[in-house]
Amino acid sequence: SRGPVACVPSPGPFAVPMGASVSKLAEVKPKKICCACPITKLARDACLPENGEEKCRYLIEAHLRCLRDEGFEV
C-alpha cells in the first residue's frame, strides 16, 4: 500500500531567482502547470492505471493541493 505523498512547497510560479536584478524581473517566465509538482504527478499517474480513481483519491488530492500551493487555480 502506498502512503500519502508530501508536497514540498517551492517559492511559487513567479519566483525570482537569487541574485536576479529588478530589470530581469520582467523576463522571468511563470512555471507551466505540466512541470509543477513532478513528485505528486508521478505518484498519481502510477497509481491510477493499477488501482483506479477511487483508491488513488488521496494522491489526486495531494497533487491538486501541490498545484494550488504553486499558485495554480485548479
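^ that was protein a. below is b, sequence first then the C-alpha cells
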Amino acid sequence: IVLIVFAGCKGTSQEEKKETAKETAFKVNKTDAEWKAELTDMEYYVLRKAATENAFSSELLDNKQKGTYVCAGCGTPLFKSEHKFKSGTGWPSFDREIEGNVAFDTDYKIGVPRTEEH
C-alpha cells in the first residue's frame, strides 16, 4: 500500500500584515498645522509621518559635543552623548536610551521585522 500525503506549508511571508492602531496618550498634543509651523520639513516627516532621513545626511552624525540628545518635537531627553557610537549605518547610534523616554515598536515595511524607536 502506498500512501500519498499532501501537506501544505503555511508561511507567513504571504500573509497580509494587519496592524492595529494603538491609542496612545501623548504629553504634547498639537494640531497638524501647529506641528508644521514648529518643525522643519524633514523634522515633520520624520517625527509625524514616520519617515526616515537619508543615511549620512544628519548633522548629528559626526557631532562629538558632550550633552543630551532631546526630541525636536517636545524636548524630552532621549540619549546621552557618552552612549553614542559610530555604527557605520549612516545614522547617529546609541547603545542605550534614557530609560522610560523612548518607545519601541516593530516595523514590517520592508518585509522583515525591524525595531523602530519613537
